[in-house]
Amino acid sequence: MKKVLFFIVFVLLGLCSYAQVSLEINSIDMSRRDKIQERPDVIKLIANGYPSFRIEATVTNNSQDSIWIRYHDYSGPEDVQLQFYDYGRYYYKSLSWILKYDDNLLLPPHTKRKVVFWTTIPTETEVPEPSLGLRPWHWRWDTKDPQDKDYLKWFERILPSMKVSVVYGKETGNPRILVSEPLDYQAIEITSNLSAEKSVDVRMSLGYLFDLFNCAVKHVTKYEFFNKDKGMVECPGTSWTMSQMEEERYKLIMTNLLMNGFDYNRRNDTLLFVFSYSDMTTSDPECVYVRSHQVERAYRIYSFTYPFNLFYEESSAEFMKAQKEIPMLYAGNIEGFETLCATRPNLALIPNYLAVRIVIKNGQIVSPSCLWRYGSIGVGTAG
């Protein structure tokens, strides 16, 4: 029985681009099926037991001209592709049309039409198989014998980067590429008939981590330490309200953390986020450290202009060696943190570190969370 896995309740990037011809994904289903009806007279058998994607989308033509989105005599197997990003690499998988009527799709001016595509998920092979329609050809799953829970975790990991591209207009001699808009997480429906038992909590959409973070910082006890003479300043009952730009930045960071393997227990866990800046008041984060009971990661941030390839270097060991306060922050050791700051001779006087500690108990955020703003503590010892 097919079930709705999750509805994601935030807009990942907040970016919408107007175009005369647009493609918007409405639903994605990843299910195990033994056949699929591509056309009224064509049924394709799926024999390898792998799940497959069924993607519904809407094409809108806001131009003054009629457009052949699909013209049979000019359509090839590489004209429709699914793009996704996984572990530092973009992949492209050929899609097939599911057509109810004929092989041609003509879109008159100022009209829209629903289109449907399908493809199997990548198949692991001993040698590269270009015939499987995947580029790059070589593919390996994280586990030797992947189960439903592995496919579901992979699905959630690649979801934010999933796009459909369609080559159209070949018959005019001026072909164009139509790429789907960023997923609208307030509207898209994600379904599957795979078993979610022993899998991630269905709330673990790629939006949930940012929602968790954003909710936690709405009620924090803030600690600031920039001046050893004044000591640490405690500000209970504080709220951090992000600007629109900050929301976009931190959403991207959370998404990339999950895409790069960060995980946590949705019922009971302690999360620590540490962001470093040249100057927190004027710059974007340059490095992010994150820790749960399961995973510890640190990344240098490359550029926010590459939303699904945000990190360019994994640097957990280097970050931990330099930042002696990390164990204290994770443990919530306020006094130990203050003592460490007070004994460092080279404490920076500008706020270039932001740390947020979130405790989850029985699926709920323990409030208030802790937020620290402090200058670079350095690695020296008091003389």
Defining key terms:
383 residues; alpha+beta; 2 domains; 9-stranded mixed beta sheet; 6 helices; 24 strands; disordered C terminus
N-to-C CA distance: 68 Å
N to C succession of SSEs: EEEEEEEEEEEEHEEEHEEHEEEEHHHEEE
Helical proportion?
10-25%
Enumerate the spans where pLDDT stays under 50 for 5 or more consecutive residues.
Answer: 6-18, 197-206, 379-383
Description:
A hairpin with a 2-residue loop joins strand 22 and strand 23. The chain folds into 2 domains: 3-192, no CATH class; 208-374, no CATH class. Helices cover 15% and strands 35% of the residues. The longest helix has 16 residues, at 244-259. It starts with a strand and ends in a 9-residue tail after the last strand. The protein is α+β, with helices and mostly antiparallel strands. Strands 16, 17, 18, 19, 20, 21, 22, 23 and 24 form a 9-stranded mixed β-sheet that branches. A 6-stranded mixed β-sheet has the order 1-15-2-5-11-9, with no helix packed on it. A 5-stranded antiparallel β-sheet has the order 12-8-7-13-14, with no helix packed on it. It is built from 6 helices and 24 strands. It is elongated. It has helices spanning 148-158, 208-216, 244-259, 316-322, 326-331, 334-343, and strands at residues 3-6, 21-31, 35-39, 42-45, 52-61, 67-70, 80-86, 89-94, 96-98, 105-107, 111-120, 134-135, 163-168, 176-179, 189-192, 220-225, 233-238, 269-276, 287-291, 296-301, 311-314, 353-361, 364-365, 369-374.
Brief characterization of the structure:
This protein is 15% helix and 35% strand. It is α+β, with helices and mostly antiparallel strands and 383 residues long.
